[in-house]
Predict the structure.
Amino acid sequence: MIAVLQRVTRAAVTADGVPTGACGKGFVILLGVLDGDGEEEARLLAEKISKFRIFSDENGKMNLSLGDISGEVLIVSNFTLGANYSHGNRPDFMASAHPSVAQPLYEHFVAFMRERVCHVATGVFGADMSIDMVADGPVTVVMDSEKLKKRKSV
């Protein structure tokens, strides 16, 4: 599972032209579910993201987490994070999980985040969406659950 975290001051998403979710200061999370992912990957990412300290403290140092700032989250599904671009100029998305597998895992991730964060909004899984956001920093981090699993086993 891959998550792209964008630190924002505010964000909103529309799906097929209809507003579906918004957040204030916190993260926009683009979430890609890959073939072979399961609930464990969703839980690991949710735990890491909820405790991730990349918000500035009173000294301007990135030292605070979502909980410390009462931060909010907007989660948007994004199968294109599984792109294979190693051949030619047109990516394939064969590494992305089939929607019948990806949607329940996306929903598990959302549920895990709701257990840890006061405000969680979402887009609509599989819809054509537009995100309007104000990037903060900008601070952008890519997280891969495989790296978290490797670290856990060491």
